[in-house]
Amino acid sequence: MHQHCKLIIFDLDDTLWPTRPVLERAERETYQWMQQHAPRITEQYSLQDTLKRRMAFMRERPLAAHKVSEMRVQGYELLALDCGYDSASAARIALEAMEYFLHFRQQVSCFADVEKNIPALAQNYMLGALTNGNADLSRIPIGKFFSFTLAGENLPYAKPHSSAFAAALQKASEHAGEEIGAQ
């Protein structure tokens, strides 16, 4: 018996859009935000220094490296603590900086033809996303064509671990049931 493909699961970063310019802008904008809201950090550290410190922090925690948002928040919090902010202020700065970063993190520009081809694919296939990043399809225009998104940071293991793909297939089967029930 011949079976047809009914599901396409995409990675997001560097598959549907270039990631580097998005992250670089989000980093710059967040650093500028810190100049206004956490000036001790920017007085002590350059943008490059903040990136190096956060990368070093993540390298020290390889088992949590796929928890990209959590690691970023903790990195911001450590920077604030290192610069003399008290614990409560450091936690607040970290969360606010993360929200600011995420705003710019979602400002993506899709590769040529993505905005044309994704809606066409969605007419015939269930589309899903499995990402190790923290792009949020609910905040990105093409997201309306996707039935589900799974982020590695919300799973026990990120890609390429097989459990991430198994979770995506489970999510797809849940959504397939919803779509069949709705008809």
Highest CATH level, the class of the largest domain:
Alpha Beta
Count of helical stretches: 7
Strand content: 5-15%
Give the oligomeric state: single chain
Spatial separation of the terminal alpha carbons:
26 Å
Structure class: mainly alpha
Percent helix among the residues? 55-70%
- How many domains? 2
What's the CATH architecture of the largest domain?
3-Layer(aba) Sandwich
Number of extended strands? 3
- Point out poorly predicted stretches: 179-183
CATH topology of the largest domain: Rossmann fold
Rounded mean pLDDT is: 92
Order of helices and strands: EHHHHHHEEH
What does this structure look like?
The protein has 183 residues and is mainly α. The protein has two domains: 7-17 and 108-182, 3-Layer(aba) Sandwich (Rossmann fold); 20-105, Four Helix Bundle (Hemerythrin (Met), subunit A) (Up-down Bundle). The protein is built from seven helices and three strands, in the order βααααααββα. It has helices at 20-37, 39-44, 47-59, 68-82, 87-105, 114-122, 162-182; strands at 7-10, 126-131, 148-151. The protein has a three-stranded parallel β-sheet with strand order 1-2-3, with helices on both faces. It is elongated, with a radius of gyration of 19 Å. The relative contact order is 0.15. Residues 179-183 have low confidence and may be disordered.
